[in-house]
């Protein structure tokens, strides 16, 4: 078998792009679709669809083009660096233009045609961010009477917000997601305000148990515009992250209302505006934005179980989100209900402080050792090794985004097989101790569990050894009831307790919509998060994308933003561009509006 030369690889890509553009220019949809392999996937982030969506097969490609081609009017397809080939697949970084903006993407070609295509909108024509040659001067080099300083202009702007000037966007939730989106909107010139009930940006992190650190590495966690410094810890402690978010909010001039709570939000179908009632500074403020974004993470309200006997239990009871830390529980008997990330972190910290800890495992959990995950799972994209190889954070984000969710598990399974082999002795010890371990519904491990259900896993930073060695005791089953001084399981097992920590997860984000808007709107929007993979806690039908995240929903002018730091960074761009386009009055016809299949 002869190897394809570099020239041939480049020529194949150039020929495909030229043929694709010619077919699009001629509005010849069948010809364009025929350039794709029979088994193919096109993932579009806003560029063609004003949505975040994936189509599959040539029929899917044709359907997308029939609906979007005239309005998009794409052109200028070209490679941005030399393509590469491995295993019969050519990868090529591309750029292109549409009527509204400029985009970039990643094309994978097989002999039959395009296998995967990622297209992303990166900026809007005429509404580019003020970067590089367009950056602001920062000062007016002309003396005039009454000239205001930069600080004075910012103070005047802050004083007018919500009074003389109304925001176009209200972002509910001021964690990393809301802050990242607020920074994007600020740079795009979209009037917005981020609202959070905490006293300072970053308090969402400061208020958690003191041992909490990020489980994801620094290269995965940068925020837009301001990457962490080169000497930032690989796994940042929670208080360090809190301070960074506070600094970031100030430096990026994100309009941010702290110590403020949204009481209600009502949408007027006639005016197409929201009425958002905010408790602030001892009074009430009404904001009337066009758009409301729920940026409350990837989860809804804490799942605090209602159990018989909770009213008679004499000890403390806490959801993991409200656990203050281990200091007050030295020598105490603690039952932690749950066996995922928070359960392990809290159990480990309590054990370190001399508590007698029992973990109640209700269902199987996937565990992967942190060092192994960093090397095998993330090392090629988010690591010092990746940076040295020219894989920037933006490039890594694009590579990850270019793998369609339908086949992502096929990429993940071999990685987790390697992890299982490397840490076989660890898993043998864990399972010998009675811990119920799994590798996901199809062996695809942590990332697919995260994307499908957002739960069911633990990135081990040491606490799993405590369970394997019996230093943290293990019990199995559902909690039946509490007594004055014990947790009783369904099989009758009694676990003496002075503290019960419910590490029982969170509901869907539309629970916040039910609270702040109303139940019918929450039902109309439907469940948030998940792919429709028909695996545990991710019911079908197949969605192809994260339900309701970063894209238009069934409720007009209502959006959701969040996820981990990687998603908050990457997808904040596409959500901000969608909001900017609407702010500027650009046509934004949405292809394949998110359907609601699950309402609770």
UniProtKB/TrEMBL annotation:
Transmembrane segments: none annotated. Residues 127-152 are annotated as: Disordered. Signal peptide: none annotated. InterPro entries: Auxin_biosynth/cation_transpt (IPR050982), FAD/NAD-bd_sf (IPR036188), NTF2-like_dom_sf (IPR032710). SUPFAM superfamilies: FAD/NAD(P)-binding domain, NTF2-like. Keywords: Oxidoreductase. The keyword Metal-binding does not apply. This is NAD(P)/FAD-dependent oxidoreductase. It comes from Paractinoplanes aksuensis.
């Amino acid at each position: 078998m002869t190897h394809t030369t570099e020239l041939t690889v480049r020529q194949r890509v150039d020929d495909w792009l030229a043929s694709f553009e010619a077919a699009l220019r001629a509005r010849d949809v069948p010809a364009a679709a025929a350039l794709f392999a029979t088994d193919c996937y096109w993932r579009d982030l806003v560029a063609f669809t004003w949505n975040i969506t994936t189509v599959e097969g040539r029929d899917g490609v044709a359907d997308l083009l029939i609906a979007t081609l005239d309005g998009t009017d794409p052109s200028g397809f070209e490679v941005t660096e030399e393509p590469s080939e491995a295993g019969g697949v050519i990868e090529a970084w591309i750029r292109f233009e549409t009527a509204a903006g400029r985009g970039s993407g990643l094309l994978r070609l097989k002999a039959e045609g395009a296998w995967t295509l990622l297209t992303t909108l990166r900026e809007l024509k005429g509404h580019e961010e003020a970067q590089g040659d367009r950056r602001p001067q920062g000062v007016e080099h002309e003396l005039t009477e009454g000239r205001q300083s930069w600080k004075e202009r910012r103070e005047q702007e802050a004083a007018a917000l919500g009074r003389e000037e109304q925001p176009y966007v209200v972002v509910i939730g001021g964690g990393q997601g809301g802050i990242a989106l607020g920074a994007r909107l600020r740079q795009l010139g979209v009037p917005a305000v981020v609202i959070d009930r905490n006293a300072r940006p970053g308090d969402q992190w400061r208020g958690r148990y003191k041992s909490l650190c990020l489980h994801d590495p620094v290269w995965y966690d940068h925020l837009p515009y301001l990457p962490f410094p080169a000497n930032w810890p690989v796994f940042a402690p929670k208080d360090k992250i809190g301070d960074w978010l506070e600094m970031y909010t100030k430096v990026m001039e994100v309009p941010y209302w702290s110590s403020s709570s949204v009481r209600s939000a009502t949408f007027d179908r006639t005016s197409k505006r929201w009425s958002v009632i905010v408790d602030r500074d001892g009074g009430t403020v009404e904001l009337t934005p066009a758009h409301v974004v729920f940026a409350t993470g990837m989860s809804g309200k804490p799942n605090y179980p209602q159990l018989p006997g909770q009213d008679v239990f004499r000890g403390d009871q806490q959801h993991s989100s409200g656990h203050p830390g281990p200091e007050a529980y030295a020598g105490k008997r603690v039952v932690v209900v749950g066996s995922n990330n928070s359960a392990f972190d809290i159990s480990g910290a309590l054990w370190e402080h001399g508590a007698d800890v029992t973990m109640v495992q209700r269902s199987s959990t996937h565990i992967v050792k942190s060092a192994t995950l960093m090397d095998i799972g993330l090392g090629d994209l988010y690591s010092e090794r990746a940076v040295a190889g020219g894989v920037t954070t933006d490039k890594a984000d694009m590579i990850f985004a270019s793998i369609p969710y339908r086949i992502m598990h096929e990429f993940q399974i071999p990685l987790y097989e390697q992890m299982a082999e490397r840490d076989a002795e660890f898993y043998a010890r864990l399972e010998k101790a009675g811990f119920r371990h799994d590798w996901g519904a199809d062996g695809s491990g942590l990332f697919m569990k995260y994307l499908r259900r957002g739960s069911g896993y633990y990135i081990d930073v040491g606490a799993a050894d405590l369970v394997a060695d019996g230093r943290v005791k293990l019990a199995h089953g559902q909690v039946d009831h509490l007594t004055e001084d014990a947790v009783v399981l369904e099989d009758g097992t009694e676990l003496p307790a002075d503290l019960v920590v419910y590490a029982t997860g969170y509901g869907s984000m539309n629970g916040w919509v039910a609270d702040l808007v109303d139940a019918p709107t929450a039902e109309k929007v439907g469940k948030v998060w998940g792919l429709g993979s028909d695996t545990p806690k991710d019911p079908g039908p197949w969605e192809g994308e994260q339900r309701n995240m970063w894209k238009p929903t069934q409720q007009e002018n209502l959006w959701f933003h969040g996820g981990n730091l990687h998603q908050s960074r990457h997808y904040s761009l596409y959500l901000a561009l969608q909001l900017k386009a609407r702010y500027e009055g650009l046509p934004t016809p949405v292809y394949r509006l998110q359907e609601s299949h699950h309402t609770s």
